[in-house]
């Protein structure tokens, strides 16, 4: 599994360097972006293994008798099952995170996922821009952890690699699929394929708004079948009018550490202290 992950980082590095060379990263990052991206990438590498350990602990407590239960299962059916279940779990958690935006008791789920959408660009770095705590609730994380717990280490490793590589391809700034989709002969077949597999165009649409954008659809990572099945698939004609989400971006600390609100808490403490001091001053003046 370690060798497979090395391939993922190698492909990421090659595409990142290519994006740099052709200027796709020039002048697109705000101060907020630098802080959020740095925290998510560097601290994410440390915290994701801890999240995996936490999920494994929960599974061991809930299903102690299932440990290694499927260790002898054949590779290909296991891989297919993990991919299908992982996509299904991801689809619904991902979809609900968007639909719970502004909900009274569930807005925290959107704020956890919002970090991945506040970047006003799409490139390979955005693939790693997620809240430090998103792994704890992501449906794919739980399916992959369960697969490992059941003894399916090899197919789970291949599934992780497939999902990561596909995420890199669909987040890359290079949009080779636009020309294919617009081709008079190949285009119809390619658009038909997009009902099954997520293309860069389909995922870029999810990160955009305005023409050919809309983060309320296209929730799949690698497979488009659940979007197609549940009516949220949209195949665009080109790039979205804008990337990101409309309005002012949250503070970098609230963004990177969502659903925690360190900035709001700090402001609340300061305001509380000021109110307390003002009240004491009023008492002193009254005396």
Please give a structural write-up.
The chain contains twelve helices and two strands. The chain has helices at 2-21, 31-62, 75-99, 107-114, 139-149, 153-171, 177-182, 187-193, 200-206, 225-229, 252-256, 262-286; strands at residues 208-209, 242-243. It starts with a helix and ends with a helix. By secondary structure, the chain is mainly α. The radius of gyration is 22 Å and the shape is globular. It has a two-stranded antiparallel sheet with strand order 1-2. It folds into two domains: 2-256, no CATH class; 261-287. Helix 3 packs antiparallel against helix 5. The longest helix is centred in the N-terminal third of the chain and has 32 residues, at 31-62. Mean pLDDT is 90; it is low at 274-287.
Strand order of the largest sheet: 1-2
Encode the helix/strand succession as letters: HHHHHHHHHEHEHH
Number of domains as seen in the coordinates: 2
Structural class: mainly alpha
Q: Kindly state the percentage of residues in helix.
A: 55-70%
What is the CA-based Rg, rounded? Answer: 22 Å
- The geometry reads as globular
Mean pLDDT comes to 90
Biggest beta sheet attributes: 2 strands, antiparallel
- Strand proportion, as a percent range, falls in under 5%
Distance from N terminus to C terminus (CA atoms, Å) equals 73 Å
Number of E-state strands: 2
Q: Note the total helix count.
A: 12
Runs in which pLDDT lies below 50 for 5 or more consecutive residues are 274-287
């Amino acid at each position: 599994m370690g060798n497979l992950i090395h391939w993922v980082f190698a492909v990421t590095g090659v595409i990142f360097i290519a994006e740099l060379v052709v200027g796709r990263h020039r002048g697109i990052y705000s101060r907020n972006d630098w802080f959020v991206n740095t925290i998510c990438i560097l601290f994410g590498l440390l915290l994701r293994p801890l999240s995996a350990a936490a999920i494994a602990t929960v599974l061991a407590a809930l299903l102690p008798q299932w440990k290694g239960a499927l260790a002898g299962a054949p590779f290909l059916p296991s891989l297919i099952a993990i991919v299908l279940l992982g996509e299904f779990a991801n689809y619904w958690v991902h979809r609900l995170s968007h639909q719970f935006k502004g909900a009274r008791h569930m807005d925290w789920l959107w704020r956890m996922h919002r970090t991945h959408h506040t970047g006003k660009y799409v490139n390979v770095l955005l693939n790693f821009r997620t809240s430090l705590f998103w792994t704890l609730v992501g449906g794919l994380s739980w399916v992959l952890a369960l697969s490992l717990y059941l003894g399916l280490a090899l197919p789970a490793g291949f599934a992780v690699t497939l999902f990561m590589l596909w995420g890199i391809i669909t987040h890359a700034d290079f949009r080779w699929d636009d020309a294919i989709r617009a081709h008079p002969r190949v285009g119809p077949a390619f658009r038909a394929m997009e009902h099954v597999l997520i293309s860069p165009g389909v995922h870029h649409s999810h990160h955009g708004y305005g023409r050919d954008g809309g983060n309320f659809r296209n929730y799949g990572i690698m497979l488009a079948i659940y979007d197609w099945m549940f009516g949220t698939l949209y195949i665009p004609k080109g790039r979205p009018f804008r990337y990101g989400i409309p309005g002012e971006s949250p503070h970098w600390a609230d963004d990177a550490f969502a659903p925690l609100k360190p900035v709001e808490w700090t402001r609340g403490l300061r305001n509380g202290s000021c109110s307390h001091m003002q009240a004491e001053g009023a008492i002193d003046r009254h005396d």
